[in-house]
Specification:
By secondary structure, the protein is of the alpha/beta class. It is built from 21 helices and twelve strands. The chain has a six-stranded parallel sheet with strand order 1-10-7-4-2-3, sandwiched between helices. It has a four-stranded mixed sheet with strand order 8-5-6-9.
């Protein structure tokens, strides 16, 4: 998937003018936000679990090389193979080589954000492979020829009517409109494809170092069918998804579903350990794990290491007012919302993603709901700082900041300027007490009035209430 983040502002403007997008996002976000709040409140130890998960992730990242080596050894003992890939190109080539060696023609895929990150589908299709997404949301956007707009609900931007149109165009027959009918239609279309597939590709929510197991969580069971019916099972995962033990998996599962979809647990939690063994009723003949770095190791030990704690639940974007207004496609790459505003600059380059760290009000809701307590606002501020240091912000903005700094470093001048501004803005409001427009703030006043100050600065108001205070 190509990075289209330089077009964030244009895409955001288009999203704000799209009534279908507002309808779809509004329903999805309200459902996820309310369910998360309900399930979190129902679990008295939820906040303690968040602390434990944060601390456990910090321990894992401090010893990441050790646990990755243990995982490699365990996968090998179980009869599988681990492929270490430094970047997206290497990961794509490894998977292409496997598919070519086994003579694959048809490939089914479970939902995997890493496969989106490395641009896997385009690479496979360019080589003539038939690739079919089996997650319902991913299948919908595959028919629409669009990337995901949400990491756990890829088709969150689509209304039911839009999905009905897509299915009718792709499948023919009578146009279905109810959710139950649409789900049944997708199930009937996809069911035979599992049996035809030569290779099944899934993601990995967790990789267990002690057993060499990979873990996926789904609500549809498509991940199970993808990996047990194909001759070859390939898991794509980032190196940070490792956990030491099966007990650690249970810890993260208790916070993952509650944070992501507001469920106590996902419908299916599936552990895969190696290929089919003698006596097994099903399972793949080959088992491969493609471990992808793609910039992650460069985050270790630096100011953005906390971002590697992310368990891809999507809670940050569910609660983000900016994501809720513009959706995921505006961010221009695989990861949208607050997590994407941090990850995309780190993976794709700060020079081509300058708008993303600034597409945030720094209200802190993302940090307050993150199950592993990632300080997202702090990371976004650090990216803004780095942009300023590298002269990546517009010249007019830099000049304005330089002027503000000049004034702020001189207390008397700062106080005089504040007094002058407070009185001038009050004058602009007239008798209404509200500002219908304000220079340099047209983005706010185009949609709302601003209350005018009463003509005195905060310091003047404080001194009036506390005579003698300095």
């Amino acid at each position: 998937m190509q990075v289209d983040s330089p077009n964030f502002k244009a895409k955001a403007d288009a999203a704000l003018a799209d009534p279908h997008l507002r309808e779809a996002l509004g329903k999805t976000r309200i459902m996820f936000v309310n369910k998360r709040a309900e399930l979190a409140a129902a679990l008295p130890e939820f906040e303690r679990l968040r602390d434990e998960a944060r601390d456990r992730k910090n321990h894992i990242l401090a010893h990441l090389d050790h646990y990755l080596e243990r995982f490699d050894e365990a996968v090998t003992r179980a009869g599988g193979q681990v492929h270490w890939c430094a970047d997206a190109a290497e990961a794509r080539q490894v998977i292409l080589d496997i598919c070519q060696r086994v003579g694959a023609k048809s490939i089914t895929k479970g939902k995997s954000m890493v496969s989106e990150e490395i641009g896997l589908n385009d690479a496979l299709e360019a080589e003539g492979y038939r690739v079919l997404e089996t997650d319902l949301g991913e299948y919908i956007i595959q028919l629409a020829h669009e990337p995901p707009s949400h990491i756990i609900a890829p088709a969150a931007h689509k209304t039911r009517e839009q999905v009905a149109d897509l299915f009718h165009a792709a499948h023919g027959g009578e146009r279905k409109t109810s959710v139950a009918e649409l789900v049944t239609e997708a199930r009937l279309v996809l069911r035979d494809e599992y049996f035809k597939a030569d290779v099944g590709i899934t993601g990995g929510n967790f990789l267990v170092a002690e057993t060499g197991s990979t873990v996926i969580v789904t609500n549809e069971g498509n991940g199970d069918l993808t990996q047990i019916l194909a001759r070859v099972h390939i898991v794509t995962s980032g190196i940070e998804r490792i956990v030491p033990t099966l007990e650690d998996v249970s810890l993260f599962l208790r916070i993952l579903a509650r944070s992501a979809t507001g469920q106590e647990t996902e419908t299916y939690t599936t552990f895969s350990t190696g290929p089919r063994r003698p006596g097994d009723p099903d399972g793949p003949e080959e088992f491969h794990v493609v471990l992808v770095d793609n910039g992650r190791s460069g985050m270790l030990g630096g100011p953005f290491q906390d971002m590697l704690r992310c368990i891809r639940c999507g809670a940050c974007m569910n609660h983000c007012p900016v994501y809720g207004a513009v959706g995921g496609h505006a961010y221009g790459w695989v990861y949208p919302g607050p997590m994407g505003a941090v990850l995309t600059p780190l993976f794709a380059g700060l020079d081509v993603t300058t708008d993303l760290p600034n597409a945030c009000t720094l209200n802190g809701r993302c940090q307050s709901v993150c199950p592993v307590r990632i300080p997202l606002p702090e990371l976004l501020r650090e990216l803004r700082h780095q942009q300023h240091q590298r002269n990546l912000r517009p010249p007019a903005e830099r000049r304005a900041l330089a002027a503000w700094r000049f004034v702020a470093e001189r207390p008397r001048l700062y106080q005089f300027t504040n007094r002058l501004a407070a009185r001038a803005i009050k004058g602009l409001a007239g008798d209404t007490g509200r500002l219908h427009s304000l220079p340099f703030a047209e983005g706010w006043t185009a949609f709302r009035d601003l209350p005018a100050p009463e003509g005195r600065t905060f310091l003047e108001l404080w001194q009036a209430r506390h005579p003698g205070a300095r």
